[in-house]
Each structure stands twice: as structure tokens, then as C-alpha cells.
């Protein structure tokens, strides 16, 4: 074999060596027993046809590569957003390993989360003993100030009652009676990660505002002038939260961010491991009840939470992942209206700089067709920004999108001449997107890491702007919200356009008539 200590070959070149090539040929001929290459090619070509697309869109009992994750993932996100809080998932150990790895691979940071480690016996007899032992271990080993409990499929199918289990665990001495253990039922077989986010955040607010599961008096609202902010499930939270805090600081607003995991996923390397870092404190959660209003950036991440907060007497302003000029304008003007303060000159300047940059680059993106998929709120924000640029969002897909969401996207498309060819696809998956890219091609695809297989298959260049992003590093450290975030988004769109243009014009004396130095 060519690999040795004196000559270490990286994997992308190692497997091209003759020894490995011979191994692959032998494996295919003697062990795989595949169909003939010609037959495979025939079927592959058929799956690119309009006939196959009709069959693909007619399926109703099968999902192929959905653009969503399950509820407990959103619950783990929420737990990481509160100070010295450890996420406790009542379910199997394998599920929790998935949540930890999913976040760690995206943020390139460790993600702490524990499990009640339910196995076959718990599936038959219930997971109470797992809860009793698990909470005790979590409290004594990791010393959190709060444990946020959620569930997986197994616990939900057998009907474990979290409220009763937590009370019994406290009676058994797993944690002190007064210790905060908010909880949420997050069945993984319905909804998605944004549903889990909503349920978990609602569970924490209810715990503190409504009397800690009957163990304390409910808090009484004393209306004040502060503003709450909820960002929703956000893969760019490290960069976005810095930008949001900066905007509030420019206004001089007393703002409370409810659920802020930006620091725990951005810890320094200085010789000290930080299991807990930053996050919203319990005191801030209690104080948030008295806020004048709550601004929510992702409607579909916070449907139940928004309703609950409004019932407490606050004004609730719901936006859809503001990206670009109009989206950020709505946020800025909401702060100004709620506080009575003028828009800071710095933000007015940044708006003008963004508009100038858009005008500088408009000729390159004008008329380019985009397919995009991801969470409902982000699809609304990105669609609006593409229309502002004169680009044409053509296929907008959200596996966890509803018909109500689709109606809102269609209204955006109908309000712009650049949206006339756009179509919206709620509850569709990436295999549907593949058919669309073959039968109604576009210039670019916006999605997450899993879109690279669509890029390879259909030749549609991918722009990575959707959680999760595993195969690129540090995108999450830059904002996509606000005027500065829109500038970053604009650059990402332009970079892929220019990279694609260079790749298409790179052959000397043949296609390099547009291989320009100046763009």
C-alpha cells in the first residue's frame, strides 16, 4: 500500500492509487452484483424527465431527504441559550448523540447535552427510573444551575409524563425541590426542529412566569419599558446575535434576549474548557415578563410562544428572518416606534451603504434564477432580499412550511415583477427539488450542506446559507440579519456568481473571452 509514515497521502488522493482502484473493481465485480451500467444510466436519465417529476410529486406516503430535523434538536438549541443550563433529553442515548454531533459539526464547538439513556426495558416499563437516575447524575456531575428536559420518540410513544416524572425525581432526592427543571414534550415524529424550539422556549417561560410547575406563586406582570428579543432557531446565531445587540445598543434600548446560545458556540481556546458560557439568566427570564413588547424574528419558530406572551399583556411584533433592506427597515422602525427614539444616524448610514453596494452589483445578479430551500422564516427573508436585488426566486421549498406560509411567500412574489415565475413548495423534500432542478433549471441553489449532492447531480451551483453547514467553516460567525448582515449575504451571492462565471470561462483561447480581471 502507498500509505506510510514517510509519505502520508490525504484521502482524496490516496484512494486513486492503483492498489485501491484494483480493490474497488474487485469489490464491484465479485461482491456487489449490481445492475448493468447501461441499465443504471437508463434509469438515472429517466429520473431527470418531466414524466418522472409527475410521479415524484404525486407521492404522498414517502419522504426522501427532508429539509428539516426533529423537534428535540430545537429543544437542545433552546437549552444552550440559557445561562449555566444543561439540556436533558429523555430518550435513547443514540438520539442525543445525533443532536450533539449536529450542532458540533455546524458550529465547530462542543455541544453539551445529556440523556436518560432509555433502552428496551424502559420502552416496556416506562422511563421513570431513567429520569430519577439521570437527573441525579446530571445535577451532581455537571453542576448546572438549571436542567431543561425534552423528549424523543421513545418517551412520547410510551406516554411518559415529564411533569410527574420530574416531581417524583425531586421527591426521590435526584435534585433539590427548589431546583429549576423546566420541561417540554417534543415528539420527534411530528413537526420539526422549529416546533421543538417553540415548545422548549414556551416551557421555560411558563416555568418561570406561571409558578414553576405549581411549586411557587405565579409572577405578576409589572409593565415596564424594556424590550424582549427572540431570534428563533438560527444557524447564524453567533454572528446574528452580535449584530442584534449592537443595533439595540445604538438605540440605547434596555433589551433582553430570550435564548442566546451565541457565546456557548463561540468560546475561546485559552486552556479553560467552558461547558457553560453566556446565555440568558434566570433573573432576565423573570424580568422579561414586565417588558413593554417582544420582537420575534422567526414567526414559525415561535407560534405558541408568541401567543403565550401576547396573552400576558405584551405587544408582540413578529417578523420573518429580516434579511435585506425592507426586512431590516421593519425591525429598525419597530424599535423606533416602541421606544419613541429616532433611528440612529449610524444605522441610516449603514442602510445607505447597503443600497449603494446593491446598486454597484445589481447588473450581475439581475435576472438570475434561484432555487432555495430551508426553514419557512428564512425562505421568506431570502426571497424578499432576492427580489430587492432584481434576482428571480423560482423554486422556494420548505419541508416544514405550511399552506399559510406558502400564501405569504406568494404574496411577496406577486408584489414584484421579478417574482412572476416563482413557485412555492410547502411540505416538499430535496428529492422533489432534484426534479425541479432538472425539469425547470435555475442558475443557483441556496441551501445547506446536503445541497452539495444536488449540486453534483444537477450541476446547479450551491450557496450555503441554511443550517446545517458541515463542509464549510465559520459561516455562522458572520451575521445575515441587519444591514451589515445583508451586505454579507450580498457578498456570498456575488462570490458564487463570479466563481461560476470564472469556471465557465477558464479554458484558454476557447472560453476565456469572459475570464476577466475586472468585474
Automatic annotation (TrEMBL):
Residues 1-56 form the Nitrogenase molybdenum-iron protein beta chain N-terminal domain. It catalyses: N2 + 8 reduced [2Fe-2S]-[ferredoxin] + 16 ATP + 16 H2O = H2 + 8 oxidized [2Fe-2S]-[ferredoxin] + 2 NH4(+) + 16 ADP + 16 phosphate + 6 H(+). Keywords: ATP-binding, Iron, Iron-sulfur, Metal-binding, Nitrogen fixation, Nucleotide-binding, Oxidoreductase. Its EC number is 1.18.6.1. This is Nitrogenase molybdenum-iron protein beta chain. Residues 70-493 form the Nitrogenase/oxidoreductase component domain. Signal peptide: none annotated. Tetramer of two alpha and two beta chains. Forms complex with the iron protein (nitrogenase component 2). The keyword Oxidoreductase applies. One of its GO terms (molecular function) is nitrogenase activity. InterPro entries: ChlB/BchB/BchZ, Nase/OxRdtase_comp1, Nase_comp1_CS, Nase_Mo-Fe_CF_bsu, Nase_Mo-Fe_CF_bsu_N. Its cofactor is [8Fe-7S] cluster. Binds 1 [8Fe-7S] cluster per heterodimer. Belongs to the NifD/NifK/NifE/NifN family. It comes from Pelomonas nitida. The gene is nifK. This molybdenum-iron protein is part of the nitrogenase complex that catalyzes the key enzymatic reactions in nitrogen fixation.
